[in-house]
Design a protein that fits this description.
alpha/beta; Nucleotidyltransferase, domain 5; 3-stranded antiparallel sheet; 13 helices; elongated
Length: 389
Amino acid sequence: MRLRARIPQVNPEALEPLEVCPHADCDGQHFKLHQQHCDKQVQDPEYERVNVQRWKCLSCRRTHRVYPKGVSSAHRSDRLKGANVLLYLLGLSYGGVEDFMNGFGYGVGKTTVYRDVQAAGEQTLEMRQAWLASQAGKVQVIGGDPTHVRCQGKEVVVGVVVDGERGMVLDIHILDDERAETLVAWLSPIIEAVGAEVLITDDADGFKEVADQAGIHHQVCRRHVTLNVLDFIAKTATRVLEKPPPVPKGLTLSADQLLADLETLEWIVIGHPGHGAKQLETLYLRYACAPAPKKGRRASIWYRMRNHILHLWNNWDRLICYQILEHTEDLKVDATNNCSERAIGWAVKERYRTMRGYKRERSILNVTGLTAWLIDQPVDYDMSPLLAG
């Protein structure tokens, strides 16, 4: 993973008075310089001391400090905080960052590194909410997908939503489960907030409920469906060739016809022909009378063939949604959910791969959200806003 962010710099000459009084019970906007020179020790690779000013609010008559760029009330500069955060996201453990910084002569404990990362993550979550509110009407296609990480020894479901055209993460959320009602409660507000018109997901039924309730187009990931169907075709063909199954009563079929239909099914799922729905209907009618298995018995090849064809037929418009939108609305939509999977790989799994798990669910959001935010920013993005306060 590459994060080309820029660690905050320290500029002792850049002191900008606040525009609003920092005290919570005062909204004063007029100040008077109270003390021009106030020496402050700071831990920083370049400066040991910086000058701090004190200003008095003319409304509440209380004073507050104004720090130079890259310095706050903390004894460490934002430059050191930014280094801690970036080193951790790039793969070092909290203890590893501690060892690295101590090797450079800066006495930093792993708990301090943890706090720096968590604080930056919390700031990112607030910034993402503000940014998401500004995306109304700018996002036509969104992709969504859940993944799993371990937290205190238990599996936690993490949902990721991205802009399907730009690949930027819109939201990362901890989900209770992957049921339809949970997915609807998670995705519906985002769809409404950005005004999305198309949803790209895997073949899970819960996502179909989301798209149907929101009244938007739904593209089911072509890759997921194709791999599943081809796997079924390969296993079924092998079994038929090794030992032709008996034909149930009510079906006027043969093993050779089944093999021919498997070839047709393969052609349909790979080629996405324009008359695919009609072809699937014809195939389904051949197997519609295949008997369901009795309780405790395994379904026959004929019945499984029936169900696979029926599932494809019922969801054909979702599978070729990318074709429909390109021809009717001149909107090009990816037929796969690669945008979501890519975001999960970089923002969630890459850093998680070297971990034993998380200890807090909030840490999952902070670390993954922070990573996703930095990935989505342009080269040389200034990390200063993430370390504010």
